[in-house]
Every structure is written in structure tokens, then in C-alpha cells.
Amino acid sequence: MLKFGSKNDVTVVHRATIRLLDDTEIIQCDFQPQHKGRFILEYVCKQLNILETDYFGLRFVDHARQRHWLDLAKTAIKQVKDMEPILFSFRVKFYPPDPFRLKEEITRYQVYQQLKRDLLHGRLYCSPGEASLLAACVVQSELGDYDPDIHEGNYISEHKLLLKQTEPIEEKAMDIHQTQLKGFTPEQAETHFLRLASQLDTYAVDPHPVKDHRGSQLYLGINHCGILTFQGSRKTHHFRWPEVQKINYEGKMFIVHLTFNEDLRTKKKHTVGFKCPTGSSCRHVWRCAIEQMLFFTLPRASDAPVVSGGSIFSWGTKFKYTGRTEREVLEETGPLRKEEPAIQRGNARTSSLRRKASSVPATPSTPSQDLVEIRYSSLPRSCHSAGLDGTGMCDGGGVPFSSPYCPDNTLPLLETVSEDQEIHARRNNVGVDEADTNDYYFRDSFDHSSSESQLLDATGKSHSRSVTPVPKMQKLQNSKLCLQVKKSGKMSHKRLRIIKIFVPALMLTIVVLCIVTVLIFETDTALFNSMRKTPEMVALRNQCYAPIREFLKSKFGLF
Question: Which residue of 48, 238, 258, 548 is 20 to 30 Å from 527, comparing CA positions?
């Protein structure tokens, strides 16, 4: 429904649907046009009883299927003006280097939920033994102690915990669950999970697909330690934040300016560029890198500079960091409240403000039999377990690096399958071929899933942007007509963008030409004397300029 009025018109209400980390519940938030992104995030955190909100964010996907983090300092509706319905995903944005420095257990539980998602979608990669232990921790947290009367046969196979579960891993996980974790409470099992997961080399890595100068496919991972790159089964680069002097981008090129010690006395400067698939994805990578670097390295948010993204080719994108830094969060002394709220796990949540998600693809409780066997190998430890120095950056502990380029430090071949692929395979009763997973396909595919645009509320009606109900559109019977409608919509959107660029440029050109013409004919300078005497300029003066000048003089008294 179209509504007209001022920017602060309180009669206009928009509705956002936020999917939570466990993929089984959603929260709805009504907001007004003047509300900023922080309003929605704080609303969600309030419903979840989270006070340490600085580590979390809301992610959304635009019409071009590009992921974005909702800017908390800008008006929310302007960032999602083309989205219908408005859908967000509640996610951990800044993974804490040490989850046990978080003050409240409920915050650690949300980080645990995020890491469980990462394990399921193949981002939290590990050895077979570590995968079995992590899976066993999840089972102990959700099922409790092993009971032979209840847990019969291969009971772990009923739960989707890993991207590709193999029988050896499941058997090892069941053995750990029955012996080593017996008597563990859910809190203790989750603590054990966090302790192991936070030491893995892929902890807190949300990879972005890029290409190097040779055109080789790489993936960038950005976390609290710096910028990492992966190629196939190898971790090829690790640029720590102390080495990064500047980050910018030019069009599709993401550029990192480095200064590192070549030896004890010499510092060497180096520039590394990575080509992103699109300009918008490059801006997203740049912004993610800037936010991660500032959050984990700045002592105070007030010290954050206004960062420029690039030159005129990048439209001079500027970013100002808002919110607190990690050091400011950790410097808060004492408990955040007198008594922490109880954690409601699994299906125990009964809040009327939360609703069950109607369509949840590839969740841990919905096993997939279509996935082929996964390959694991030993995984080197990173500097995550080494702690932080005074600046909030990783110290020299952890994996030794001979130089900023470490081709000898290898990772297992990361084979992840997006939820889109899993759903498509299930619908067509086709397994995911090994050849389809050979790419180092490292992403949070749920946010790209088309099912996210089909969330339903408790009444079975789709969410609309406004609280005012919108009549349902009739389903198109002809698939060709549907494609034509989509194509026409894309074409109209492109035409609108072209018009928005062309009209201001045309107007600016006309104004500049008018100013130059007046200067040529009305100023008596030697610079323009020879120009005014040319036949073309004489004809222009007599046929156009002089009549217009006389008209303006008689009507408005100009000149």
C-alpha cells in the first residue's frame, strides 16, 4: 500500500521479520520510517534477553542477491526500500576472540548457536576427531545422557549436525557421547563445544569469493586476527591487523596495503589486490574488513576516522564507524544485571512475540541423505588460543609463519554445499554430486536461500511491509508469463537507474555550457578575444545568444 506523508509520519508502520539463529523461530518487529537500524537490533536483543548487543548484527539480501549488514546508524527503511517483505537474519557479526570473556551465559549461548550453524554449513572446518567431538557435544546438550532404552541404533544419524556426516564420524560421536560426556549438563556440553571451536583455524571466518592477479579462485576470510585467504586445501595468506596499513577498493578490486618486517631492521611495503565478482560485493568485503579491523583494534570508537573506500571510480564511498569497540565492551566492570535470565533451549521457548518459522531448510533436525562423503584432514591451530595483546590484536603465538605469505600452512579441502543446492537436490530426488562440491564453496547460503522470502506468520499469511493488510496476488498459471514479468521488472529497474544518472548529468552539462557561454561573450579578456571572432562563435552570438539576451533584459532587467 502506498502511503504519502512526511518523513516522520507516525501513521506509516513497516514490519520486519527476523529469523533467529536456530532457524526454527522468527521475531516480528514493527518500526516507523524515522527509526534507525539500531532500533530493530535492540528490539530483537530485548526479546532474547541479550545485553551484550555489540557482537550481533542483522543481515539481509538485496534484489541483486548481495548480502549486507544493516547499518545501525542509518534509517532502516532506506536500506531495504526495495525489499518486500522485509526479512533479516539475526547473526553474530563480531565473533569474540575468547567466548569465555563474555560476561553472560545467554550471550555465549547465542555464539554457540552461531557456531553450530557454521559447523552445519561447512564453515567451521575441522578434523574427523574434532568433528566427532563437536557433534557429540551438540547431542549431549540436546538429548542429555545416553539412555539405551531410548537411543537405539545409530541415533545420531537422525540429527543433521555436519554438512556431510559419515558413519565413522557418527560412530565416534556416539562413543564420545556415551562415555566421555556422560553426566555433562547442557551448559557444560556447550562450554566444551565453545572451547574447542574457538581454537579452530576457521573460527569466526565468513569467506568471500575473490580471484587473485592470476585469476585463481580464492576465498577471503576476515576475523579478529586479520585477513586470511584460502585456495583449495591451502591457507595461502594471513595478513594480521598490525601489518594492515590501509584498505580500499577500486571498482571490483579489493586492495590491502601492508607493511611488514622483512628482517629485524627493514620494513617492507606491499600491496595486494583481489578481484571480487561485482562492485557491490567488493564494497561489502571492504566494509566488513573495515568494521572488523576497527572493532578489534581501536581503543575507543571516538578515535575512529572517516574511512574513504576509493577514488572516483569507487564513487568515493565513505564509512564512519559507530557503536563501541571490543575494548570498551570488555572494560565494563561488574555484572550487567543482578540475576541472569534462564536460557530457554530447544523447543522450550514460549514467548508470544516469537513464532515458529514455517519453512526451515537444512536445519540440524532435518537430516539430508543426499550428501556424499566428506573428506577431512588434520587442521592446524590458529592464534585464537594464544589470546590477545594489549591492543586487542593477536600476539605472536599460535601457528608460526615464516612470512606474510605462508603457502606451506595447509587446511583441509573445504567442501561446503549451499542450502539452495540441498533443497534443489531434495526436490528433484537427486544427490549432490562430488563434482558439484569440489569448489571451495564457503558462504552462509541460508541468507541466499529463496525460502527466506517465503516466511509465514502464525496465521499462514505472508508478511507485508506495512501493518495494513495487502490483498494476495493471484498465482500466475503460465511460467513463461512469470518470466516475462520478472524480466520486465528488471528492465524497468535498469531504465530507472539510467534515468536517475542521465537526467542530473544532462542538467549539469547544460548549466556548465550556459556559464561558459556567458563568460565568453560578456567578459572582455584577451583569453576569449580570438575565440569570439571565429565564424562559429559570431553565428552563435547573432542567432542565439543576442536574442536570448535581449529577451531576458526586457523581461527581467538582466545584463
Answer: 548
Whether 382 and 518 share a structural domain: no
In this structure, which amino acid lies at residue 172? K
User: Domain for residue 199, yes or no?
Assistant: no
pLDDT one-digit tens code per residue, 314-349:
455 778 888 899 999 999 877 888 888 888 876 444
Cα–chain center distance at 33: 23
Q: Which tens digit of pLDDT belongs to each residue from 81-121?
A: 889 899 999 999 999 999 999 999 999 999 999 999 999 99
Rounded CA-CA distance 143/67 in Å is 35
Query: How many CB atoms are closer than 10 A to CB 100?
Result: 10
Say how far apart CA 291 and CA 95 lie, in whole Å.
12
**CB of 219 within 8 A of CB of 207?**
yes
Among residues 369, 386, 403, the one where a domain terminates is: 386
183 within some domain: no
Q: How far is CA 104 from CA 10, 92, 324, 339, 420, in A?
A: 36, 15, 18, 10, 35
Phi and psi torsions of 460, nearest 5°: 85, 5
CATH number at 236 reads 2.30.29.30
**What is the number of structural domains in the chain?**
2
What is the value of pTM for the model shown?
A: 0.67
The residue out of 386, 402, 432 marking a domain boundary is 386
- Domain span at residue 262 reads 208-331+378-386
The verdict on residue 165 lying in a domain is no
In 3-state terms, what secondary structure has residue 236? Answer: strand
Task: Return the H-helix or E-strand segment holding 208.
Answer: strand 208-211
